[in-house]
Records
---
Amino acid sequence: MGLTLLNTLQDYRGRHAGETVWVLASGSSLDHIPASFWSDKITVCVNFVGSKLDLQSYYSVTHYHCDAAILAERRPDLPVITPAVDQGGPAAIPEPPQAPCIYFAETASQQYAGFDAERHWPTEPDHLVVGPTSLHMTMHFAAYLGAAHIVLAGADCGRLDERTNFTGYAPGTFPLDVWESSLRQVAARLRRDGVSVMSLNPFANFALEGHSFRGPTVSIN
């Protein structure tokens, strides 16, 4: 599915109204999903996920201007959404990157562990939420596109077989308890707006076919 670069961020509002949008994070559960599965899906990817999975067509959302610049250089034909104010990336750059494929979204201030979806959810229709990770803004952008259903993949918030990220994705700092808590808040807020939010389990059932999972609130196998 090809994507078109539009003039402004606002032009993307409702572009996929009523459709299912898949939000891809970097959890190691993605190792258990065949690459061909994504070929006909509308995918909105966190940071470098789309690039690392070598997807052909996807939206990228990142909190960090440095990452936005790299993504725009790698795939100038695909939309990159980033906050108007850099949200504290490890390699901050002095000026916001400029490229036709980069779209800046107004957000509230980053609250990190103090994030509360009820208090920090934007009230302006063209503003996006900023939570402790880029995943939350990615989810909100999927809703901004008009998604009726958001399906999360790789939003593991834990360690599957003791690994936090899919093969080839560099691990970072993981305040998993903060992520897990805020993920539930963002999902609940989007559901209140009428968007269904669910997660893809790549295994036959919740028993995970013998794989182990360790998260802040659950342990399996």
---
Amino acid sequence: MVRLSGDFDLSAHVGDLQLDLQQVDLAAASVDVVLTPHVLEHVPDTKRALGELFRVIAPGGRMYLQVPLLHGDTRVPVEPEFHADNTPVFFNFGWDLIDQLEAAGFEVTVLVTDRFRSWLATPATGPSSNGDGFLVESLTEHARLDSVTGLADEQQSVQLGFLPPYHFVTWECRRP
């Protein structure tokens, strides 16, 4: 098994490959697992990137995608937004990212903590937005419970530092 890491900007991060998710220079069906932590929000053409990811992932393979889930629905930043390495943010994704992933061909399960899943199911039990940029009320209003699975109980969440729980959302995307 070969393990490689890639990045678009090799001056900001260390990677084995320089990759542009909008045009991935890898053979079709050549990758079993892709991890994309906090990358997709920095890609200008989401549809093209998801199509390329689907193309390079082998049947039965998976992508674990993480993006900040700030709102219940996808929005374009009103003001220019950059993350710590001065990478521009093109999208603040919401639950409707599920639709985009499914349109690209993936089977999608959204992995969250048990506590967050409970809050989504019964919003009155959850917190209010606290000024950290996450609009909790919008997250619960637009939640897609049919796609959400809780994985970490309260003790595991505390041990692993998954707090606040709405900061930790992963889209598991399986290529059939």
---
Amino acid sequence: MTESPDSLKVTAYLVSPLAGPAPILDSLLEWAMCVHVHGGNETRWKVDRRFPAPDIATIPIPLVRERIGGWSVACCSSPILPAIYASTVEHITKRIAVEHSDLLAPEERRQVNTTGFWTKSYRLPLDVRRVEKVVWFARGNRKGLVDLLKQVHAIGQRPAKGYGRVLRWEVDKGAPDAWWFAEDDAGAGTVLMRPLPKCAELPRDLIGFREYYGACCPPYWHPDRYGDIVEPV
């Protein structure tokens, strides 16, 4: 980093509905940074749950990382959504077109597998929400964040279908120190702001969480990252 880290508020203003969950900021930044680390867009898709996950914190991002419970966790909150104007559930469907089955190789026409392989059929639900913006609190280098986020034009799932399009990014200094924890307005305790490992280093008065089995570092979907965690509710 060329500057000392600051407490930041990162805001993505959206011009289309958000499909699926909004990403945690460090995972979004690592995805965007892969092109610089490895030299091409294709490397973004090299991580596969069938193979071991890459070492933690090997991809540099303009966020501070700190150790907690044996993990190196980025100083950023989970995404915060304001008022939701509207929500619905759409479906992603796929099935093999039986009217074109004669295009298959003769040995493949006897029985078509619709539960696996490329001919698998599915109908998956997709939560779609209309929100004005998504907010994260973080600690890091503002200029580095601004430069890297210029490459991110959409967030959430199905961006190729037009969901989650970002109108603009704003990165403001002077934000509250709320990347991991925040003080409850009523003074009831310390509010959890992002997934963290379940460990003795957590505040004793922690509130607003549930115990879970999941990840606290990207890639959040990889089994090698799974462990006992606490996450916001």
